[in-house]
Amino acid sequence: MESSTVLKAEKVTLGYDGRIILKELDFSVRQGEIFGILGNSGCGKSTLLKHLTGIYTPVQGSISLLGEKLDTGDPAAYKRLMTRIGVTYQGGALFSSMTVAENVALPLELHTRKSKKEISSIVREKLALVDLADFGDFMPGELSGGMRKRAGLARAIALDPRLLFFDEPSAGLDPPAAAGLDELILSMREQLGVTVVIVTHELDSIFSVTDRVIIIDKAEKNIVAEGDPRKLKDGSPNQFVRDFLNRKGLKRSFTSHG
Amino acid sequence: MDEILPRTTWIGRIKKAAVSTAAPFIFVGAVAVALPEVFRQKTLRLKDLTYYLDLCGSKSLPVVLLISLLMGTVLGIQGALQLRKVGTDIFIVDLVGFAVLKEFGPLMVAIIATGRAGSAFAAEIGTMKVNEEVFALKTLGISPESFLVLPKLLAMLIAMPLLTVFADAAGLLGGSIIGVFYMGIPLNAYWDRTFAVLDEITFLLGVLKSSFFSVLITLAGCYCGFQAESDAQGVGRGATRAVVLSLFLVIVADAILTLLYSLTGY
Question: What CATH code is carried by the domain that includes residue A232?
Fold first, then answer.
């Protein structure tokens, strides 16, 4: 693996229950970039994210994060690796029995030897980063959808990860909230120097935050384009890619793909 | 290469059956492996433990007392009807005492714990699965078995034997109400015989049974939660499965333990 590569997927085939979802995916993510995984609904983007974060194991192929193979079969190695990455989920995935501050503090309490005072200080700092400084004592159920996502982000960055995954960060948010979250992602990279992988189908987010993307076609079960989305929009030789990035081709998406 | 292992082939079906057969054992193994993490990774939070102690213990106490009292009276009445025929009224004390301490005390507690805690565990973990909280635990480098199962297991291991002590007392009281007021046995005579025929071993064997039941109910509830499909109906089905599986396991364990006790002279 090149020194600047933080994620590498080699001939990765995903599937469950006997069915192939995506086959023989090859791609890599470089240090410091914001990388998008795009595709139409149901193409397997979120499933791919779960494989990239080690929740599921690929049927074939291998995935490396930060220079380490994911599927070593050693749970201790996996846990160590997970302390160096952060993952945010569509709904925030906050633990509902804990306050927002307790959620953010949890990885620090479990994976570091920091004192309560230090942890409390880091929690305040992370919550301030996501503009939730005054909401530490709130329960997740008391927050709006966008706030839950931001609180999930604060928890994901608690251990200062080098690689950050977002699953549909703008899904379900109104346009200003989605734009705010996009700005937050950009500021994460600037302030923390973190590499970001985003799974999304929101075109506004794609063009405003990603440096490079892969586009997955459900019909092909594979990557059909890779590169700068702004160049692919009109310059891709693949009709599906151009249609996808120009908000066209819905009929094909619903008929031949569904 | 659209299908790796089609579900329709017999190999596919055998593999699927093998995976689902092995799943409960893999789960129990994962919990056993996670046990030391409670101490190493500090995953046991006092707040969680007290919550589950309240759910499984103090909140269950009133219903445990009431049901055990009634069970003691039912046992007393049924025993009285039969023992009167042969003029051995006083043996109602033995019947109620042994039945309550060795069987009905632990069983009543197990049934209530299944309804209250077992189903709640399954629903809680099932909902966490729907909300991707279980995935979040994994990607935070936290073992879900350690974080979600062990606090529940510890709370149940503390609460159920304690509840059994209360259930035993209530059951004996129920039996004595029938013995004294229905059969006319003097109160002192009833309780003197109770303490004469029942020993500490009988009491402890019942409490030990309750400890076994607490492990089975917790593991069944949590397992059904982890196996629940990730939708609202799936969570409901998971909770139902938890109740059915827990009751089945408790009855089977009760039969085995009773047989073992009798083989060893108890």
Answer: 3.40.50.300
pLDDT tens digits, residue range A97-141?
899 999 999 999 988 889 999 999 999 999 998 889 999 999 999
Q: In the prediction, which pLDDT does B7 show?
A: 54
What's A99's DSSP letter?
Answer: -
- Tell me the C-alpha distance between B203 and B205, whole Å: 6
A258 has pLDDT over 70: no
The amino acid present at A102, given as its one-letter code, is: E
Helix (H, G, I), strand (E, B) or coil at A203: helix
A interface test, pick of B139, B142, B230 with most A CB neighbours within 10 Å: B139
Enclosing domain of residue A152 = 94-160
- Domain limits, chain B: 1-34, 44-263
Render B167-234 in DSSP notation, one character per residue.
Answer: HHHHHHHHHHHIIIIIS---HHHHHHHHHHH--HHHHHHHHHHHHHHHHHHHHHHHHHHHHS-SSHHH
Using one digit for the tens of pLDDT, what is the confidence trace for B127-156?
999 999 999 999 998 888 888 999 999 999
Number of H helices, E strands in chain A: 10, 10
Please tell me the distance in Å from A234's CA to the nearest CA on chain B.
31
Mutate which of B9, B38, B132 to test chain A, going by most A C-beta atoms within 10 A? B132
Give the one of A15, A54, A91 whose C-beta lies nearest to B132's C-beta: A91
Give the total number of structural domains in chain A. 2
Continuous segment of H or E residues that includes residue B97: helix B92-98
Per-residue confidence at A180, pLDDT binned at 50, 70, 90?
Answer: confident
My answer on whether A32 and A136 are in the same domain is no
**Chain A touched by B229 (CB under 8 Å):** no
Claim to verify: residue A127 and residue A232 sit in the same structural domain: no
Q: Which of A59, A75, A79 sits opposite B4 (nearest CB)?
A: A59
Please report the ipTM that was assigned to this predicted complex.
0.85
Contact yes or no for A53 and B139 at CB 8 A: yes
